[in-house]
Structure formats: structure tokens, C-alpha cells
Amino acid sequence: MILPLSLVSAFFLFISPSLCHPLDPLTPQEIHTVKLIIQISHSASSPNITFHYVDVDEPEKHHVLKWLSSNRHRTPFLPRRAKAVVRVGGETRELIVDLITGSIVSDQVYKGYGCPPFTFDEFFKAIRLSLKHPSFQNLILRRGLDLSEVTCLPLTVGWFGEAAKRRVVKVTCFYRNGTSNIWARPIQGITLLVDVEENRVLSYSDRPRDLCLKLKALISKGRGLALFLAMGTATR
Ligand SMILES: *[C@@H]1O[C@H](CO)[C@@H](O)[C@H](O)[C@H]1NC(C)=O
Ligand SMILES: *[C@@H]1O[C@H](CO)[C@@H](O)[C@H](O)[C@H]1NC(C)=O
């Protein structure tokens, strides 16, 4: 449903004065308002907006102290603002929303390092994409495992100072084999790299089984240098 911004502003005007304290967390209604205002302002450029962070935009300390020393039961604290971090059209944006006037006070593209945190939706999407990927299914079958007993879990790929261009997660998998403890049997050597915004598996790797056996033999013989060299081959 798309409502004109002015209508939303009028509707939510003066919702906040009933708040008890300026640092109170956002109410469910306020979170909903923030979502609606941001969606309306960006719906023209992109229908898909993901929210990665929504919280109170904390007022300056001296404003809060002034309010505390005033007749605070009768004077509502103004303004009431929220800050949000969203992904829209492949960009990260940081917004400040004024909840009293129902307007966006600031809206900036974030150009710094890193990406906003992943959402649960993105994690679940990465799991679904991995389990559906035909090459991954083949790898599992080649190892004689039952695909319906495989659980995959996404991990962030980490950040090592490089310019982050894509939002990707690394997916590793476990074999439940009829139990509820997914951690007991990690499926070694198979990892997938999933782009959660392009909705696709970018790459997968399968460290060959015979190499694992070779490494095991080297470990048992305590041959450190040979192991180190073999691992170099494994990661190339
Ligand atoms: C928006 O999301 C839908 C559903 O996930 C998808 O089909 C569509 O391609 C997306 N549109 C854009 C512009 O990313
Ligand atoms: C799965 O469980 C069965 C029965 O406990 C066991 O024989 C088999 O080795 C297990 N498979 C794997 C891959 O762990």
C-alpha cells in the first residue's frame, strides 16, 4: 500500500508525547512508522528495501538533563527521532526520521568501510540457495550422503580491510544423520559462497577427499613442513 507522505505525517503527528523518557526504546508503532516513511520515500527508486538497523536517535545529553530538571511529567520531550540503516538499490543508506513531524531529516549514502549486519532473511536465503544448488547436491550425493539429512549454516566471510563490494556469506554444512545435533558431523571440505543480494551461489569449493586423507597421514607422522606444503596446495 502506498500512501502519500503528507498523509502519513498527519496520521502519526503527535504520537510520541505520551512517552515517558527521551531514551525509551522505540515502540512497535514507532518502528512501523519509520518503516512506512522510509519505504514511501524510496519506493520510486527501488521496491526492495531491507532494514538492517532501527533505533532511537539519542538526543544530546544536555537536552535530556534540561528536560529532567523541568516539569517533565507535563512537558513532552521533543524531538523524538529514529535512526535507520537500510540497503536499497545496492547502496547502504543512513537515515534520521523525525517521528513527530513524520519526515526524513537526513538521508545519506554510506560510503565507509564494511556492510550493515546480515538479516535473518538473508541468512535463510543463503541456506535455501545452497541446498538447491545442483553442483552442491552432486557433491553431497558423491559422498554417499542423504541430502534431506544435511543442514547448512551461513557464516560471514569476515572483513580484512578490502573494499567490500558484495554482500556475501560463506555456507558450510553438517550431516544430521537422524539426530538433532547438527554440530556433531561437519561435512568437511565443502563450502559455498553466496551473494545474498544477487540471490545466487557465486562459487563452491570441494577440497578433494584424497587430499584430506593425505593430510591425515602427514599429521599422524608429524611431518610439519610437508603438511604445510600440502595445505598450500589445498587452498590454491
Ligand atoms: C525485488 O524483490 C523481488 C522478490 O525477492 C525480486 O523478484 C525482484 O527482482 C527484486 N527487484 C529488484 C529491483 O531488485
Ligand atoms: C549415520 O548413522 C548410521 C547409524 O547410526 C551410521 O552407521 C553411519 O555411519 C552414519 N553416517 C555418517 C556419515 O555419519
From TrEMBL:
Contains 1 topaquinone per subunit. Keywords: Copper, Disulfide bond, Metal-binding, Oxidoreductase, Signal, TPQ. Residues 21-108 form the Copper amine oxidase N2-terminal domain. Residues 1-20 form the signal peptide. It is an enzyme of class 1 (oxidoreductase). Belongs to the copper/topaquinone oxidase family. This is Amine oxidase. The lineage of its organism: Eukaryota, Viridiplantae, Streptophyta, Embryophyta, Tracheophyta.
